[in-house]
Fold this protein.
Amino acid sequence: MDALLERLRAGLPAEALITDPDVTPSYAHDMASFCDAGTPAVVVLPRSVEEVQHVMRTATALRVPVVPQGARTGLSGAANASDGCIVLSLVKMDRILEISPVDRIAVVEPGVVNATLSRAVGELGLYYPPDPSSWEMCTIGGNIGTASGGLCCVKYGVTAEYVLGLEVVLADGRLLNTGRRTAKGVAGYDLTRLFVGSEGSLGIVVKAVLALRPRPPRQLVLAAEFPSAAAACDAVCRIMERGHTPSLLELMDRTTVRAVNAMASMGLPESTEALLLCAFDTPDPAADLAAVGELCKASGATEVVPADDVAESELLLQARRSALPALETVKSATMIDDVCVPRSRLGAMIEGTAAIAEKFGLTIGVCAHAGDGNTHPVVCFDHTDPEESRRARASFDEIMALGLELGGTITGEHGVGVLKKEWLARELGEVGLELQRGIKSAFDPLGLLNPGKLF
Ligand SMILES: Cc1cc2nc3c(=O)[nH]c(=O)nc-3n(C[C@H](O)[C@H](O)[C@H](O)COP(=O)(O)OP(=O)(O)OC[C@H]3O[C@@H](n4cnc5c(N)ncnc54)[C@H](O)[C@@H]3O)c2cc1C
């Protein structure tokens, strides 16, 4: 420990190091429940690429594991510390280095908060689409680490579609440049894409070139109430089948609606079994919403209410963004799942989840990026009751099994981390797993980067 601190201090200012044992444990984990976390030896908050390189050279020389962290809003334990590790928090590297309206790119450091970037490019008439509900807190580095999605991804796609190039500090401290800042480019393997979603296991992202789009018109939202989740899912299929391109298509079940009202007094309709939110940012959103409203009615919607204006639309979005925190208040603990299925199987997924809730005698609230088929079943339980906790874990596993059975994936956007690593092998299969392990060891032969995650 002394040798580690001495070597780190040789290349870092004193304020970049936290060694106080009362403080370092506060960097031990992200926002996932029930994921193991160790105690870091030291927390480092670098401000430059050279400082990150110094940390990685030191870690390699002394064989100390390194856990990169952004804002620690992750929901899979992917940013959790391991015992004796260096926690490398990138939050102080938070400069927007360039915004180019001609090239339609932004060049940023990893600690830039998603919403800060969105606002900065918005002032220039540009748009950075990936918008996780945690956008006011989470960082671009963390978004790249988890390949995060969000509310507008049904139209604009996820983080992977917007990362053009990266600067990465490798495990041994070398600097790697991947990708491009051009509109096109196919030179060599796509290492950029490999880093997106790699959960800090291949290198430390210190700079990112991100694609931007022209800012679309402000979106208008419609809320539709359904007598069942199946009817709401039927509406989702109709909307997509008819060729509509909503900028948002989200679902909240009754449990979620009630939880949001209880937490934030949002006045959402509590008698509904499922609430669908649909938005358009097209030149004539009212016309698009009217067409979608008819499709909702054809699927059995009992009430279809388009928002009057942008302010009312924003309130509905706020309600949706507060769904996960609201569900966390239902019982003393939650396990948040993230199963994504082909959207044509969304109804089966949600009905199957309800059957699992009944089988285990648990409350499982579901909110979903419905247009992407990405469900977040949230298992609510009393963590002081060992028997209920056991049932919660079992139901969580059955939900993933159901997702795979329906042709889906165990994680649409939250990542594998610690939470789902047993399940990754099941999804990838033996050959896939072996090749992925080979890739990991090509980048990180000593296994120092974020150990214990993914595999
Ligand atoms: C209320 C709430 C709502 C959420 N909604 C969404 C949502 O809609 N969509 C969604 O996708 N997620 C959502 N999340 C999950 C979470 O916000 C995202 O996964 C987010 O991308 C994590 O960013 P972060 O900065 O907190 O990263 P962290 O949690 O700190 O880290 C995430 C991963 O990235 C790695 N990492 C971080 N920085 C770097 C770096 N510079 N170089 C290499 N690796 C790095 C870490 O090691 C870790 O593996 C939500 C979370 C909460 C709490």
About this structure: The pocket of flavin-adenine dinucleotide is lined by residues 30-31, 68-75, 78-79, 90, 110, 132-134, 138-139, 141-143, 145-146, 148-150, 199-200, 204-205, 324-325, 413-414, 450 (CB under 6 Å). The chain has a mean pLDDT of 96. The two ends are 27 Å apart (CA to CA). The first strand starts at residue 17 and ends at 18.
